[in-house]
# Entry
Amino acid sequence: PHRELERKETETQLQRAVAGLPEKQRAVFVLRYYEELSYEEISTILKTSVGGLKANYFHALRKIREALRHEVQRTQT
# Structure
């Protein structure tokens, strides 16, 4: 039960972090992480370059990590 609660809490924190991303970064993250699409597939859907997508995904991951780190620090105090 305790692990399930932690998993749900982590998922909620991740969802909040994703919701806080700029629209384009959020779209790339959702398509890549949750939908597990390739960069080429996402490129076709969003009509943008693979290089641009990779940059957006990198920045999205960085922002999500930072948001989750802040969330952990907030809950530990």
Summary: The mean pLDDT is 93. The longest helix spans residues 50-76. Helices lie at 2-19, 23-34, 39-46, 50-76. The chain is about 85% helix and 0% strand.
